[in-house]
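Before surveying the methods themselves, let us examine one representative protein, written as a sequence plus integers encoding its fold.
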Amino acid sequence: MTDNKQATDYPLLPLRRGVLLPGSVSTLPVGRTRSLALVDAVSVGDIIVVASQREPETETPTLADIHPIGVLAKVHRVGRSNDGSARLVVETRERVGLEQVVQSSPYMRVSAIPAPDQNGDATEAKVLAESLREHVRELAGDAGGSLVEAVAKRLEPSALADTIGAHLPLERHAEVEVLMTVDVVERLRLVARFVNEANEMHAMRQKIDEEVRKRLGKHQRDVILRERMKAIQSELGEADESGEVDKLETKLAEAELPEEVQKVVDRELKRLTKLNPAHPEFNVARTYLETIADLPWSTRAEVTDDLDEVAAQLDADHYGLDDVKERILEHMAVLKLSGGSKGTILCLAGPPGVGKTSLGRSIAEATHRPFVRIALGGVRDEAEVRGHRRTYVGAIPGRIVNAMRKAGVKNPVMLLDEVDKLSQGWGGSPEAALLELLDPEQNHTFTDHYLELPFDMSEVMFVVTANDLSKMSPPLRDRLEIVEINGYTPEEKLKIARGHLLPRKLEENALGPDAVEIDDLALRHVITDYTREAGVRQLGRELGKLGRSVALQVARRKPDEPAEAVHVAAEDLDEYLGKRRFFNEVAERTAVPGVATGLAWTPVGGDILFIETSQMRGKGGLKITGQLGDVMKESAHAALTYVRSNADAIGVDPNFLEDRDIHIHVPAGAVPKDGPSAGVTIFTALTSLLSGRRVRNDTAMTGECTLRGRVLPVGGIKAKVLAAHRAGITRVILPHRNARDLEEVPEEVRSQLEFILAEDMSEVIEAALEDGHEPEQSQLGLTVLTDVDSSSPTLS
């Protein structure tokens, strides 16, 4: 280095991470404020100083934060990007030493002095340079080709060292060391050491690649990089663990697994760590362990023990349903007193629209448990419930296990919706798959086919819903605590409409709570004249239609019209909802002898029916129509036999069949009908026809009748009585042994009806027939199922 060094001022571009050596052309990205100001100030051909920062994280470096030696660089190109950053293409030249900062803003300028090479012409330098060329020619690897090409040119020893240093894959501190070494001999030795290390690394890589190739087949060449990593870890003596597997292992360790499950998990984890990630079994094993890790083996929700809070929540969400609410409170009381967490299994059975599904959600909210719903309607494969075995490709857990994963706790409220609509297909019976789940003595070891491990389901509160219990197998029904919901009375519907349905429908139609005024009489007419159902779903639709009509009326108002509430009275319903759909047909149908009003049970609730009879000239034949089942046909034959054998007692000509035929018809012929409870009604209709005495138009009846005239009990009394009340009936004839079933009928309905409890048909005839005698004529007695869907009525 000469003694006379003259300092020159240059713009300074500090580099965060890169290191530039003399004799190269590089593209530098520029993004910091001061560096962008430098880019704006320089032009093509200008000379700047490029130096490296000591710490890349320093945002605004001073001279002390920059290495003391940099390189002069000539600007070849300046480019700006749309995002505000810039790029400089520079050609680096000789080294310079940084003396002091002469300007800090808007960009840095420093005074720099030359840092010339030392011992560049020494013989040792020339010998080292030639030896380094030979070494580079022997180098093979990722950078070997570019290095051989670079040293093919006849370069001075100093330039050779810088060129090789720039082409080697060196770490940042090694590049800085090369830049800071101004003695050419030392620089050549330093670069030679780096070349030897690169050569050794290349040889090691070749050895590792060779080992990998021996272990891999041709179909696994796409995973050579993963195998190379495994070989490197083997050389270093490190364990081959994947980060994902480590996380999974940690998650499983935190899951507090039962001992039996922990043994299986340990075995599967050991197997997983030995599998190649590209092996098909790797993902199968990992997915299996992830499923186990996601299940709530020991996590429980904090269940409230405040019975008043639970009762208030249930009352706020649903009006009525006292039996169900009482059963929930009983369950919560047992949990509170015992301190345990045993689950329960409730089956809410009843017609559509009575709130079975929404009641399950209310139970979860009231008890502060997570709520999961499983729709079982139409499921016909047992594997959908209990999962597929892992031997099948694409095997997954069943719906029960997935619901528990979603719930995240061991004690959720699980709603099994429409369980009576499970169907049986070639994949087995899904209903049979529920037998273990819904058995309190077995579900603590519920086993899914996918898991093949026992999972405790005993703390789950199961709520099962069904419309028709007769479609469920006896073993499944035996496991359920059945709570029947037979429908609402008109008064209950009125309160539900006022408190729940109407506010919701107004909100759905963008109407405020004060936008409509509908009086109770109008609501009663909607309930009786536009719906005839056990639940309130159709009532909700009618109120929604009313809301839409009002919304149209409000939307058509002119801006200057006052925003008054729309008043809806009973006489306005035809305008909003159209013509009435249902009428009281009892008086009209029973106006002539031979027609009796019966009560039927259907899956959608109770209903009334009319059985009509007629006689004509003939030879004593009996014709039965109306798509009746065998049981109902037998009731008709028994009724005819009873009337003939007791003709004198009931005032009928004993020889009425000598020259006449009898026809019994039950209309709604497209709907199949069966069951024994129409027996009393058929007896009454035949007696009315043959005696000429009309059946009272305010009376309906149900019951099975024997050949001797005994009246036997039947089921569905509550649903049938509610149907009679909806139809305007005021007198109901029931079997005497059904008297205890009247306790289930709401008091407000019982108080409006007169009940006649009969043990013999003579009592029925006395209560049902009028005293007057009508002239004998051909009459029809009709059993019409009003508001009945495609479901078959069961007269039992």
Summary: The chain has a mean pLDDT of 82.
